């Protein structure tokens, strides 16, 4: 039986390619309105695209039979191990119970003073210059420093940690594989040393994450050293690039929409609502992958064990059936927090409260100090495909 006979038109669109900014949203909007499902044949295994809000949400809820054996529809082959992502069912729930306390609202609140302090330091470093590449000089540095603090590691290590993590990210998106492998080895050695140090000098496991991982028991067994290292690596991979990307889209928007910028400058109390609407409007994890574990059916779509699913976060967040005038930034939009930017179901983003904190702190501290800025004239903004991020965002302001 051919795929078309299974009830789905073909799509040949490669969502992994770089485009001019917002190019991916335009492609996704077109797809969603053309037909409900598509079979996309641009990867070796191909994948079925769920695109409407209700379908994508239901896809996340089918977690018992649609698993993270495939994490990204675009890269369905098993790659770097990730925890907790790679686990499903009870094993996943048990590890989440160990990790959740560190990412719960109360824990994130504990980080707030430090988050403000570090943010102000970085802004003050840039402010006298009157310009910066916001992506490289701020948007990636800030989450890296907070990530190190979260793990209980010295923020000053960002100086050498950041170039390693950047080289590793670049490797996932076509960069030099040998350099990426060397960077990965450095990062693993760095985490290994942190774990060794905590084993020798355990700190308060309620406040120190590496100590908690060293001391935790699941079914009476300690978490293996290998898994602790994988968890640290996962948090780095999941938390840095995403926050950088969100900041890039938010600052592009604010530089281009003076009225929205003025609104949050005049009333910083609007910032939490603005963050939520930004995260809805500019979803950067445009899809989560899943692998179907048993033959079945999805609203008339015939599915087989092993099929790869694209849960289209980028389409769902901009689905007019759910969010009227979806392409507009609407401060105080009703029901905005039902967006799927952080996923849904058991794999919902572990770091979402931290991400919200980071974005809100940056918006507050930056606009207090640099309320007016513009994108350097003549700049063409390019977004990296796959998981969206702006390659560069040159900003200028008066000093
Ligand atoms: C704006 C920023 C962020 C966005 C848009 C985002 C988005 C997402 C999405 C969509 C998922 C679900 C993937 C799936 O269901 O397959 C996810 C999972 C995850 N995120 Fe985030 N994320 C962000 C920031 C962070 C941060 C700051 C951290 C931690 C430092 C983090 C850690 C994780 C982890 C560990 C998972 C896997 C959860 C699991 O499988 O149980 N994320 N994120």
From TrEMBL:
PROSITE patterns xrefs: CYTOCHROME_P450
CDD domains, per database record: P450cam-like
Q: Does the keyword Metal-binding apply?
A: yes
Per UniProt, the keywords (alphabetical) are: Heme, Iron, Metal-binding, Monooxygenase, Oxidoreductase
Q: Name one GO molecular function term.
A: heme binding
InterPro entries in alphabetical order? Cyt_P450, Cyt_P450_B, Cyt_P450_CS, Cyt_P450_sf
State the family it belongs to.
Belongs to the cytochrome P450 family.
Q: What is this protein called?
A: Cytochrome P450
Q: Which organism is it from?
A: Thermocatellispora tengchongensis
Show the taxonomic lineage. Answer: Bacteria, Bacillati, Actinomycetota, Actinomycetes, Streptosporangiales
């Amino acid at each position: 039986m051919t795929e078309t006979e299974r009830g789905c038109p073909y799509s040949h669109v490669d969502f992994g390619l770089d485009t001019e900014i917002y190019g991916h949203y335009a492609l996704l909007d077109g797809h969603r309105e053309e037909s409900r499902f598509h079979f996309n044949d641009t990867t070796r295994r191909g994948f079925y695209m769920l695109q409407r809000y209700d379908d994508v949400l239901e896809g996340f809820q089918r977690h018992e039979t649609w698993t993270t054996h495939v994490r990204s529809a675009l890269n369905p082959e098993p790659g770097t191990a990730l925890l907790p992502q790679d686990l499903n069912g009870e094993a996943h729930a048990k590890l989440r119970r160990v990790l959740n306390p560190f990412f719960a609202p109360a824990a994130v609140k504990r980080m707030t003073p430090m988050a403000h302090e570090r943010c102000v330091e970085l802004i003050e470093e840039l402010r006298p210059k009157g310009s910066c590449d916001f992506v490289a000089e701020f948007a990636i540095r800030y989450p890296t420093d907070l990530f190190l603090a979260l793990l209980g590691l010295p923020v000053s290590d960002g100086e050498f940690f950041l170039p390693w993590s950047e080289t590793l990210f670049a490797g996932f998106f076509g960069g030099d594989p040998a350099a990426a492998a060397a960077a990965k080895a450095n990062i693993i050695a760095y985490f290994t040393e942190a774990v060794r140090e905590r084993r020798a000098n355990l700190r308060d496991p309620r406040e120190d994450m590496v100590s908690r991982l060293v001391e935790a028991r699941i079914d009476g067994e300690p978490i293996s050293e290998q898994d602790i290292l994988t968890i640290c690596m996962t948090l780095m991979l999941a938390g840095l690039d995403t926050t950088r990307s969100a900041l890039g889209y938010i600052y592009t928007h604010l530089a281009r929409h003076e009225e929205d910028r003025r609104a949050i400058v005049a009333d910083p109390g609007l910032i939490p609502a603005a963050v939520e609407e930004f995260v809805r409007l500019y979803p950067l994890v445009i899809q989560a992958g899943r692998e179907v574990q048993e033959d079945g059916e999805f609203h008339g779509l015939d599915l087989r064990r092993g099929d790869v699913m694209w849960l289209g976060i980028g389409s769902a967040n901009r689905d007019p059936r759910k969010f009227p005038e979806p392409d507009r930034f609407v401060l105080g939009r009703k029901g905005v927090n039902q967006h799927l930017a952080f996923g849904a179901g058991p794999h919902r983003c572990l770091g979402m409260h931290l991400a919200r904190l980071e974005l809100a702190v940056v918006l507050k501290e930056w606009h207090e100090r640099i309320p007016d800025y513009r994108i350097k004239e003549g700049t063409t903004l390019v977004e990296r495909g796959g998981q969206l991020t702006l390659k560069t965002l040159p900003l200028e302001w008066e000093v």
